[in-house]
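Bench notes, afternoon.
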Amino acid sequence: MLSTIMIGHYLSIQGQFVRTTPNGLMVVRVGDMTYAGRPVKKTAA
């Protein structure tokens, strides 16, 4: 499942969902790299 996270105020990363950390951050994988950040809320179009 693809998920989008925010790192900082201006950088967003979309990748494959890996896990959610105990402090509420989401971890996604892009290639060989993993990134942790705040999940982006889904909104209806």
